[in-house]
């Protein structure tokens, strides 16, 4: 069963953007509907899950053929939403903490995990609060969240503080390019209706160079960069060299996991 962690105190001087939290809280009940407002994430999930499994397994020298290659690893899913990543990470063996600033998201995630018989430590909290509490994780998933925070530098530094020496962070976000505006904002929100209008603000998108700077300033070492592209004919996402719209970047924290 999912644990009933107590909500942590929110920090009003941190990275929280109330408008962004309200936006996603309004859609909280639809997280697990593959045909609803989060349909793009459900379509995207197999690609990012495979990337996470392979990258984490390689970093910690785990057997990728194992059914539970993440056994023994403490993992933070920051900005976990309804738990679309937290649940499969738990099934792969990780000890998962799912954190989100939206209380409705955490309630949705907790109920769904309980229905699935999964033990996930869901918390209504922030990266800053976790860092201040001295929480440490082997793996941090920072997926499609940084473009929604108020202070990207403070947010990334909090994530860096929470990552153990020798640990791995995987970040996914949108590039601030004209093509990203055309496809991710105009196309996805206004033409195709994949996402509610106003889900993304193009000015908050982050270029790979900016991401590297944020990671470096947070005491992390940027590493792998890969694009993620959508094929409309196949209705499928896949990894690619094209980082003009969606991309993922990994970073490690200097030191030893021992």
Automatic annotation (TrEMBL):
EC code(s) of this entry = 2.1.1.222, 2.1.1.64
Highest taxon in the source lineage? Bacteria
CDD domains given in the database record? AdoMet_MTases
SUPFAM superfamilies assigned to the protein according to its UniProt record, in alphabetical order: S-adenosyl-L-methionine-dependent methyltransferases
Q: Describe the function of this protein.
A: O-methyltransferase that catalyzes the 2 O-methylation steps in the ubiquinone biosynthetic pathway.
Checking PANTHER family in the record gives: METHYLTRANSFERASE (PTHR43464), UBIQUINONE BIOSYNTHESIS O-METHYLTRANSFERASE, MITOCHONDRIAL (PTHR43464:SF19)
Protein name as it appears in the record: Ubiquinone biosynthesis O-methyltransferase
- Naturally occurring in which organism (per UniProt): Pyruvatibacter mobilis
